[in-house]
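Quick illustration, no need to memorize.
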Amino acid sequence: MSDAREPVAAAAPASAEGTPRADEGRLVREPRTGLMLDERMAERYGVRPANRWAVAAIGVLVVAFVAGVLGLGYKLATPSTLPKLLTFQVASPTEVKVTFEVRRDGREETYCVLRARAVDHTDVGYATVRITPGADYVQRTFPIATYAEATTAEVLGCEAGGPPVVDAPAFRPGSTNPPQLEVLDGT
């Protein structure tokens, strides 16, 4: 009995079916499962390599879509005018004094919409105010005339160049908005 071992030829790696891969060609990735198939198996089962142009076009479209969403989000998150209600005081049953600030581009007229509401949440005063060009930061106190006593006041929004798109006034049936001042000095 001899201790010498005879060299054994290394076996070729086996494919999924257990047959040697010596005669197999290049491998193709099956898109649904991710399995690697040789060309013969891919042809047999109808698996084709992905069209590189289609993949590139889809990639470009995805990048453009993401860039558009990010750009829109940035624009919506950084408006050109930033209004803020500081205080309001019910001066009388027919007037509310609203102190507010606006950060804006001082080269343009800015329009702000203010409203006063009653305890039943109906509007009792509504004003669209034009702030003349001037300073980038404006803080003003505006008297809103009301037809009934107000319990709250708010700045609905401000926009450069024209009135902002905000909720329409919701007055009680049969009532009208009292006359309001229309212009504030923006300097």
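The chain has two helices and nine strands.
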